[in-house]
Design a protein that fits this description.
This protein is α/β, with parallel strands linked by helices. It has 11 helices and 9 strands. The protein has a 6-stranded mixed sheet, sandwiched between helices. A 3-stranded mixed sheet has the order 5-7-8. The longest helix is centred in the N-terminal third of the chain and has 19 residues. The protein is globular, with a radius of gyration of 19 Å. The protein starts with 9 loop residues before the first strand and ends in an 11-residue tail after the last helix. It comes from Rhodoplanes azumiensis. It holds the Pfam family ECH_1. InterPro entries: ClpP/crotonase-like_dom_sf, Enoyl-CoA_hydra/iso, Enoyl-CoA_hydra_C. Belongs to the enoyl-CoA hydratase/isomerase family.
Length: about 260
């Protein structure tokens, strides 16, 4: 167990260099209330030193069914809803642009705010039971957890519009095909695969992982000239670290393995 003042809706533990965080509200299909969002923010903002990757999963039959609608029923005023949305933004920013890569193990519902949460992670592993949906149109609301920014970058604006306007769902296979997940595995295999991927990620050079999380998305979003220049700077910074130099020597002196097919 990891004791950093998390709400009972989140369970965390450390396994070597991997932190395991689980949404633990199965009776609500792991719907995200404000306390859970604040707990996510606290967890990712205060990761223990030595943690090199995080695995995020959901307890029970679903990853996350989205926003707990009780949080937005009869708000005092519009400004309260704006602040509520910004709280989600701050929490998910700590995931996407935090200190370590995050791998999500998906199964069952990945709906609304649950899809927004998954989109803030870096690698998503889905089981056949996984389905994706954005039912905000049917609820009379709009995306509020950064989904209108992140999800179109995964699956495209037209498909996001389709999901929101029609209320249809994407199957696990469709999600993999469109970019909602990078991996599609068998039933019960998402969490073991996510752990295996996290362990592999944890063995990477720390500066390279940092660059992949922080530099790569900003380079991709910039104009080409700025992107090329930023890439050159990041390449020099990464290659100049003592860890990188040792890894390069190990490879040249045949102490490191070559790239092979597979995991």
């Amino acid at each position: 167990m990891l004791d950093i003042g998390l709400p009972p809706t989140l369970t965390a533990e450390i396994d070597g260099e991997i932190a395991l965080l689980r949404l633990s509200r199965p009776h609500k299909r792991n719907a995200l209330d404000l306390a859970t969002i604040q707990g996510l923010h606290r967890f990712f903002a205060h990761l223990p030193v030595g943690v090199r990757a995080v695995v995020l999963s959901g307890e029970g039959e679903h990853f996350c069914a989205g926003l707990d609608l009780e949080d937005v029923v009869e708000p005092d005023d519009i400004l309260e809803v704006i602040h509520h949305s910004q709280t989600w933004h701050q929490a998910f920013h700590e995931i996407q642009f935090g200190r370590v890569p995050v791998v999500a193990a998906l199964h069952g519902a990945v709906v609304g705010g649950g899809f927004e949460l998954a989109a803030a992670t870096h690698i998503r592993v889905a089981e056949p039971s996984t389905y994706y949906a954005l039912p905000e149109g049917q609820r009379g609301i709009f995306l509020g957890g950064g989904g209108s920014v992140r999800i179109p970058r995964l699956i495209g604006v037209p498909l996001v519009q389709d999901l929101m306007l029609t209320g249809r769902t994407l199957s696990a296979e469709e999600g993999r095909m469109h970019g909602a997940s990078q991996y599609l595995v068998g039933a019960g295999e998402a969490l073991p695969r996510a752990k295996a991927l996290a362990q592999k990620i944890a063995r990477n050079a720390e500066m390279t992982n940092f660059a992949v999380l922080h530099a790569l998305p900003r380079i991709a979003a910039s104009d080409p000239a700025a992107g090329f220049f930023t890439e050159s700077l990041m390449a020099a910074i990464a290659a100049g670290t003592p860890e990188a130099q040792q890894r390069l020597r190990d490879f040249l002196e045949k102490r490191a393995g070559k790239v092979k097919p597979g995991l």
